[in-house]
């Protein structure tokens, strides 16, 4: 009996959730008439067919490789995908797995359907996008919203005389407008977005997304017009068409790109003004000044050895510089929504991490691995060198024989003028090889007697080498190759426990279970427990 997989999908364009049940019911009726067995059921709800990044279709493709069914049954080909490249890829992969496609609209699917329907689906998406943008442009020209809503406004729900919804109108939300004016006033007075976000969260004011406030929510991106301080609607300027969206062919996700100034559509909407012009100009002047004025620490500090590796164990946010010499939780500092208020000195944290690496690198098993790898590499280089010397000797022997043959030919009566050039070339190359062999000696395969001592000396000087100014950027990259992340979590004693996660054990084949815990005095309690083998492991400090 033929095993069938039913696939159904509905997108958000004028379709309802019941649509997916209708598709399934029609497919089940067809399967029953044909005497097929429904082995699998896959569906994607409220997801566009312009991308294959859908859980239902991905599960279907995986199960097809496992011989879970013989036939994919769906309402129409555009339910699977409307993208030409995607539908062709699905068809190829299903054919490779021995699975056919049949739709209620087109019947059995062949290469002809793939080409024709894929083109029609792509044209449909382009036409739909053009019509949508025309409708949005019309609403913008009328002073209405082109879609979405900004913080500070409420969507006005109203209907026409015919009972049709009238979309695009909005009015000022006075509660949120007061927050916006407060942000503009305080920023113009010199407060930072970080301080503003912290104060708003402390007051329990929900942000635009209903969550806590962050500095980026306030500051945004001035080029893209995002963030509270850059929303021109607050000064009665409705700006549309700032960004162009294009789908990344590899990820299927939309990527935004800023458009030229000449492509913007701007409409005055005086009824929606929240901030007066004079205050807006003061804020813009301060933003302009700050854009050309790096902070003191940005001017002074070099690249940090542990940059981008540190994470808070409480909230998962980053651990960053909270002062010139200390690291702390960024979320606790910027938003005030994390309870981890402990900080750690930069030099102490770097010293502990490097000490942990030194402890692991001194492991006898690692030393043996290093010596073995060093010997193999050195012998390989010496072997290549000796091989080249052997080739030179072989070539020299051939040249000597060729020279002797030419001399014999002259003795046998061949005119010397006919072999003069060949003899000169052979003589020049022979002299070149003889010089090379005289200057280069063939080296025996030996193991350097001081290798182990040299290795221990280098590891012992690891901290000094990593912290050397000229090596700092390269050292930070090297450290990131050994460590994926470092989490800092408060313990019951009011100290920070530090966990290192990375592939150090896998890369260096450590056998660290034999080592006991490493205790370090001071504000940090330090323990070190590593795994073994060639899998990523966790190091606890």
Short synopsis of the structure:
By secondary structure, the protein is α+β, with helices and mostly antiparallel strands. It has 18 helices and 20 strands. Helix 13 runs antiparallel to helix 14.
Descriptive notes:
By secondary structure, the chain is α+β, with helices and mostly antiparallel strands. Among the domains are: 125 residues, Resolvase, N-terminal catalytic domain (Rossmann fold), CATH 3.40.50.1390; 123 residues, Hect, E3 ligase catalytic domain fold (Alpha-Beta Complex); 82 residues, no CATH class. It has 18 helices and 20 strands. The strands form seven sheets. Strands 2-1-3-4-5 form a five-stranded mixed β-sheet, with helices on both faces. Helix 13 runs antiparallel to helix 14. The protein is extended, with a radius of gyration of 36 Å. The two termini are 60 Å apart.
Question: Which residue ranges are poorly predicted, with pLDDT under 50 across at least 5 consecutive positions?
Answer: 297-302, 504-541
Number of separate strands: 20
Q: Given this structure, which CATH class of the domain at 3-127 is correct? A: Alpha Beta
Largest sheet: 5 strands, mixed
Shape type: extended
Structural class: alpha+beta
Please give the radius of gyration in angstroms.
36 Å
Supply the number of helical segments: 18
The CATH superfamily label of the domain at 3-127 reads: Resolvase, N-terminal catalytic domain
**How are the strands of the largest sheet arranged?**
2-1-3-4-5
Approximate helicity band: 40-55%
Using the coordinates shown, work out and report the CATH topology of the domain at 3-127. Rossmann fold
Mean pLDDT level: 76
- How much β-strand is present in the residues? 15-25%
CATH architecture of the domain at 3-127: 3-Layer(aba) Sandwich
End-to-end CA span: 60 Å
């Amino acid at each position: 009996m033929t095993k069938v997989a039913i696939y159904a999908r509905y997108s958000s364009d004028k379709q309802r959730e019941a649509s997916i049940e209708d598709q399934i019911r029609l497919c089940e009726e067809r399967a029953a008439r044909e005497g097929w067995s429904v082995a699998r059921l896959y569906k994607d709800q409220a997801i566009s067919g312009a991308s294959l990044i859908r859980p239902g279709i991905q599960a279907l493709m995986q199960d097809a490789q496992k011989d879970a069914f013989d036939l994919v049954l769906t309402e129409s080909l555009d339910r699977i995908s409307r993208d030409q490249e995607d539908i062709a890829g699905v068809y190829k992969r299903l054919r490779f797995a021995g699975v056919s496609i049949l739709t209620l609209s087109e019947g059995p699917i062949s290469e002809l359907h793939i080409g024709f329907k894929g083109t029609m689906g792509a044209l449909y998406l382009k036409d739909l996008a053009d019509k949508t943008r025309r409708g949005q442009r019309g609403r913008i020209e009328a002073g209405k919203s082109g879609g979405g809503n900004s913080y500070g406004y409420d969507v006005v729900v109203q209907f026409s005389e015919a009972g049709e919804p009238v979309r695009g109108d909005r009015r000022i939300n006075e509660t949120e407008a007061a927050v916006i004016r407060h942000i503009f006033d305080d920023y113009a007075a010199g407060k930072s977005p970080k301080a503003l976000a912290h104060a708003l969260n402390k007051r329990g004011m929900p942000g635009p997304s209903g969550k806590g406030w962050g500095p980026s929510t306030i500051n945004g991106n001035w080029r893209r017009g995002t963030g509270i301080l850059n929303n021109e609607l607050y000064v009665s300027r409705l700006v549309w068409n700032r960004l162009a969206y294009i789908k990344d062919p590899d990820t299927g996700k939309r990527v935004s790109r800023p458009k030229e100034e000449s492509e913007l559509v701007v409409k005055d909407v005086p009824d929606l003004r929240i901030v007066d012009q004079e205050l807006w100009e003061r804020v813009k002047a301060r933003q302009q000044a700050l854009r050309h004025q790096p902070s003191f620490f940005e001017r002074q500090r070099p690249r940090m050895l542990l940059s981008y590796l540190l994470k808070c164990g409480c909230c998962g946010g980053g651990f960053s510089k909270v002062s010139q010499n200390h690291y702390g939780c960024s979320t606790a500092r910027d938003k005030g929504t994390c309870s981890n208020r402990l900080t750690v000195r930069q030099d102490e944290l770097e010293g502990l991490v490097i000490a942990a690496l030194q402890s692991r690198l001194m492991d006898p098993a690692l030393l043996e691995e290093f010596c073995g790898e060093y010997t193999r590499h050195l012998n390989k280089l010496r072997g290549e060198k000796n091989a080249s010397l052997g080739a030179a000797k072989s070539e020299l022997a051939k040249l000597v024989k060729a020279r002797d043959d030419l001399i014999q030919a002259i003795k046998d009566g061949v005119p010397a003028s006919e072999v003069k050039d060949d003899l000169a070339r052979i003589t020049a190359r022979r002299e070149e090889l003889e010089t090379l062999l005289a200057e280069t000696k063939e080296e025996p395969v030996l193991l350097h007697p001081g290798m182990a001592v040299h290795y221990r000396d280098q590891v012992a000087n690891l901290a000094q080498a990593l912290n050397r100014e000229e090596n700092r950027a390269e050292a930070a990259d090297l450290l990131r190759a050994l460590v994926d992340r470092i989490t800092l979590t408060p313990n019951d004693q009011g100290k920070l426990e530090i966990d290192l996660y990375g592939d150090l054990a896998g890369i260096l084949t450590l056998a660290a279970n034999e080592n006991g815990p490493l205790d370090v005095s001071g504000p940090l309690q330090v323990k070190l427990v590593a795994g073994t083998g060639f899998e990523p492991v966790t190091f606890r400090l």
